[in-house]
Design a protein that fits this description.
Layout lengths: L8 H22 L4 H7 L1 H5 L3 H4 L5 E7 L2 E7 L19 H4 L5 E6 L4 E6 L4 E4 L8 H4 L10 E3 L13 E3 L6 H21 L7 E5 L3 H8 L10 E2 L7 H30 L5 E2 L2 H9 L3 E7 L5 E5 L4 E4 L8 E2 H11 L3 E5 L10 E5 L2
Parallel strand pairs: 3-8, 8-9, 11-15
Antiparallel strand pairs: 1-2, 3-4, 4-5, 6-7, 10-16, 11-16, 12-13, 12-14
Helix pairs in contact: 7-8, 10-11
């Protein structure tokens, strides 16, 4: 369901929530559960419905309930209202968080600390760097005879506490300073090799501009993006770094999606593509879908019987039905394929879903 962070709409969210819980109860009873069993299954969800819960929401709420699991997520996606009762969890509305909308890393470099963040289009979180030195000062050894460069750290400041480390000199123009920073960045790069091993997600640098060419010289990670977030990252919160990095990376991810669409169009008519759900569902199940485009906010109800290789579609959701578009998307992901969960108008051939096969 959609939720709201602020404003009068937060008062309407509990009403929408109660209506959806009531709908879930009706569907459970219709599927064969006794009324009391249905109410017991939903009891933990009902316990959420209190003032404090609704005051700490994001843009969307997803709740998953079974006899042995209850969990909920407050997510930065504006969901459509939807209740699904079936044999497995319905995940398609969450796919924009998990697929082509981009996993990436931000490496924030400053004199005082090095931080690494993992981001998606919608979120960002910091990754612990326990095995890396946390600031350049720990790694650099300066020749105090050099008057061009003075290094101060831990000096007191008004109001108590310590002032952050400060470098004085001619930017990165001092050869000794460059060498020391390069040596440190090689240590950082070595640590990142372990953290990012086997990853293909792009990496964006954030820092003072003169550090970029030095880090690029040390870098061995093949997916480092040329453009970076310039300025002192210590002055930016994680969400601000995320916003600036995403502006840089959005064309990169859009280009990858466009390339996938172009490939679909090039292969159309060869038997290696399809926009027919009855053909795509078995292919996804048998690990034969390489790339899948699936429309968010659209469902196609029915069921798939692997033993008979039979796909049955229904105009309206019936008991024991599942969304076969969700089925195809999840199996494509589980089998190592790529899924683009996009607005309906962005699916090739103006179909609800479209696939490129592996043969």
């Amino acid at each position: 369901m959609p939720t709201h962070r602020l404003g009068i709409e937060t008062q309407q969210d509990p009403i929408r929530f109660k209506n959806l819980v009531r709908e879930a109860e009706e569907q459970l009873i219709k599927s064969g559960l006794r009324g009391q069993d249905a109410r017991n299954l939903l009891s933990k969800a009902k316990e959420l419905d209190e003032y404090k819960f609704w005051q700490h929401q994001s843009d969307g709420l997803a709740i998953f309930i079974s006899t042995n699991l209850f969990t909920y997520y407050c997510l930065p996606i504006n969901f459509q209202e939807l209740v699904v009762v079936t044999d497995r969890f319905h995940l398609k509305p969450l796919l924009p968080l998990l697929t082509n909308d981009g996993r990436f890393y931000i490496l924030a470099l400053s004199q005082n600390q090095v931080r690494l963040f993992q981001g998606t289009r919608y979120s960002v979180s910091e990754i612990s760097l326990e095995n890396l030195l946390q600031n350049i000062a720990e790694a650099l050894k300066y020749d105090h005879a050099q008057k061009q460069l003075q290094f101060h750290t831990g000096t007191s400041q008004a109001g108590g506490g310590e002032r952050a480390a400060i470098f004085h000199g001619q930017g990165a123009g001092n050869d000794q300073q460059k060498d020391n920073i390069l040596r440190y960045f090689r240590q950082v790069d070595k640590g990142l090799q372990e953290l990012l091993k086997n990853q293909q997600a792009p990496l964006v640098l954030a820092g003072v501009e003169y550090l970029f060419p030095i880090y690029k010289e040390a870098n061995t990670y093949p997916y480092l993006i040329d453009e970076g977030v310039t300025g002192n990252p210590d002055e930016l919160k994680a969400q601000e770094l995320h916003m600036l990095a995403w502006k840089i990376l959005m064309p990169h991810f859009n280009q990858a999606q466009k390339a996938a669409v172009d490939r679909y169009e090039e292969l159309a008519g060869t038997g290696q593509t399809s926009n027919h759900i009855k053909e795509i569902v078995p292919m996804a199940y048998y690990q034969l879908v390489d790339t899948l485009f699936v429309a968010v906010g659209v469902q196609r109800w029915g069921n798939f019987t692997p033993d008979d290789n039979l796909v049955e579609l229904h105009r309206e959701q019936e008991t024991q039905d599942e969304d076969l578009m969700d089925f195809a998307a999840i199996h494509t992901l589980l089998n190592g394929g790529t899924v683009y969960a996009v607005e309906p108008e962005l699916v090739p051939d103006n179909a609800p879903l479209a696939a490129v096969f592996r043969f």
